[in-house]
Protein 1
Amino acid sequence: MGDPASARFYISTSEYLNIGLSVKSAMTEISYQKLQRVPAWGLASEAMCYIYSPTDEFDVRKVFRLARRQGLSVGFRGAGQSYGDAALNGEALLLDLSGMQRILDWNPENGIVIVEPGVTIEQLWRKIISSGWWPPVVPGTMKPTLGGCAAMNIHGKNHWNLGSFGDHVLAFSALLPGGDIVHCSPTEHSELFYGILGSFGMLGCFLSLTLQMKRAESGAVRVSAFTAPTIDSMLELIDIHKEDDYVVGWVDCMSDGLRLGRGVVHMANHLLSSESDANVVLDEYSKHELPSVLFGVLPRGWVWRLIRLLNHRPGWKLINSIRYYIGLWRNGHTFIQSLPQFNFLLDYVPDWRRVFLPGGFIQYQCFVPKAKAADAFAAVLRRCRERGFCAHLGVIKRHRSDDFLVSCNLDGFSLALDFRVSERNRPRLATLAKELDEIVLSVEGRFYFAKDSTLHPEAARAFLGPDTISQLANLKMRCDPHGLLQNNLSRRLLPELHVPLLVEEHVNRD
Ligand SMILES: Cc1cc2nc3c(=O)[nH]c(=O)nc-3n(C[C@H](O)[C@H](O)[C@H](O)COP(=O)(O)OP(=O)(O)OC[C@H]3O[C@@H](n4cnc5c(N)ncnc54)[C@H](O)[C@@H]3O)c2cc1C
């Protein structure tokens, strides 16, 4: 691999370790005990970071001061559920904010909750569901923290309808590296509000978030599943159902020719508790749990080991075909699921990412305007096949545009593709990703930093555009003039955001 930028998603541990040790030897106050190997969620990359675990605002302040005295950068980490390098800060400080996990206030009358940033989606829904409320925007797993969701401005299977996480943030407070706390809402410091939400921890650390929850009286949805024999019919079906409460398409990426992009679309709508078949009753807490066994017999914890046996091309072809033909056989099938069961499908199989060890996997997610989506996605899927890759999982969602400064969102569709990584395929995968970027950029598409592992600075700049980058750089100067806040993703994609770090000896010790 000649190109260092494309090689970054698989930099080896020993390289990090060597750098980490040399950094350590230059330091007087940062303990070697804090140096830990931290993996990206997809396990395809990792970094050696000095981990600090604050439990309150004062701990965060101390780490900011320590970093300035040592001339080191600070990155943030919530639950570490970003697929790539967004929550890594190699050879520098990494603040693990998952310990700031108090729900500060919950009002079941109006559905407004105030939380610390380390509260997880899981903690939140468990707290509110019995009063008939649900978080309006959730990802495909319940593990992320709300600080991480705000920093990436995540979306769910209802993006067209309800927008992204930031659309339900009523206010937040954030600690800036210089020590000031800013309180922001859509009307108070609105430039910071729309800038900090989504800017991957580059401007400040969320200390608290005030969120509006959504009414969900039964805690359940009625789900319908329809097969789509081609990519065009898949996008059409998703678009027709975009006003449903949720809609998502699964793509069989192993299919080709006339069946390219075939799959199954699931749409779901909240069930009223008055509906007679609402078999998930509000107070029946256990009904909200994911099943402990799959297919009636298989303990959930074992499933990844079985899938691992099929972790090769014929195996994935078999899994995808079975899934498609079951969908075809049960076309139009309707069933009831609890909200956690419907939304957190990926949590059904604990540890599923271990299927892909030792190389791990990456996700490639691109966002494309509606009118260009069918052709662009067909071109993406075809290019994968031409280069000898088939994603083992493909997912399509409908999106709308928004007002956040750093945003992947547009009026169109996203396609997310999961690729297994191995020592052998890494260079070819990096080349493929670059080719896919060109297809996406040629139709004015966008990318999502929470999932990214392979993008190059040129592609990031092309999709964000000079105005956004200059606005972000201005906010960075305003909020973080010493350039303290960094992470591996920011250094990989937007190095121009960072000024050289200086050791500031005058900074107080306590
Ligand atoms: C199985 C799976 C399914 C997923 N499905 C979806 C999906 O459907 N939709 C979607 O949008 N995403 C999805 N994601 C991605 C995930 O929602 C995001 O990566 C989210 O940001 C993870 O939150 P986290 O707490 O783990 O944050 P981390 O991954 O730990 O951190 C993410 C970013 O947040 C910043 N950050 C964290 N805490 C703070 C804070 N207190 N203040 C400032 N910055 C902070 C960090 O700097 C970092 O850049 C999925 C991830 C997984 C593993």
Protein 2
Amino acid sequence: MSKVLYIKANARTDVESRTFQISNSFIETYKEKNPEDEIIEIDLYEAGLQFLPKGKMNELREAVEQSDRNHPILKFAYQFYDADKYVIAEPIWNLGIPAILKAYIDYVAVGGITFTYTEKGPVGMCHSKKAVNIITRGGDYSSEPVESLEMADKYLRNIFGFMGITDFTTIAADRLDVITEDTDKLLQDATNKAVKVAEAF
Ligand SMILES: Cc1cc2nc3c(=O)[nH]c(=O)nc-3n(C[C@H](O)[C@H](O)[C@H](O)COP(=O)(O)O)c2cc1C
């Protein structure tokens, strides 16, 4: 039985969000294919995340040394470490990920839990795990000069890789805010891809 962490990062609700329309289809298909698996859904707007607290970083380090799995911040890192698979869903915002998702990454990328320091530098501790990132974007970042401006999917791919999760698939719906586009078709194409990926995930 696998544990799947479904990480949702958007101020829009399930009904409003085009990203969640795709990611929820992914999850539904995954559930049908893997009824015995555990899906843990975290809506980051409901999870009570803050920025890392000022003046408390030493306290946090001590809690890592004591392996305090109930610590209000570290519990997210342990939950992340315990998962086998990750499904992340977010829109691109201002060329990057929504700030709440960055706050979550700051909670889970913890030395001593999801990565460790060695004489050769930091090494990821999350082995044999895989991730799917479901992202929607108003624009199109498929070629230069704008390709290198995209720092949402790229950032997640890098930080997941940093924690040891290098099996990372992206499902993207692009050009959703280009007024001449058939948005319904773009969303349907991305949803079809999501269903296909979910069947084999
Ligand atoms: C605050 C904000 C910032 C955005 N920044 C970008 C951006 O930098 N690049 C882009 O292509 N689209 C940008 N968009 C458009 C969204 O990424 C796009 O409309 C997306 O499909 C919204 O997904 P949702 O329906 O799940 O909320 C932005 C939207 C918002 C609300």
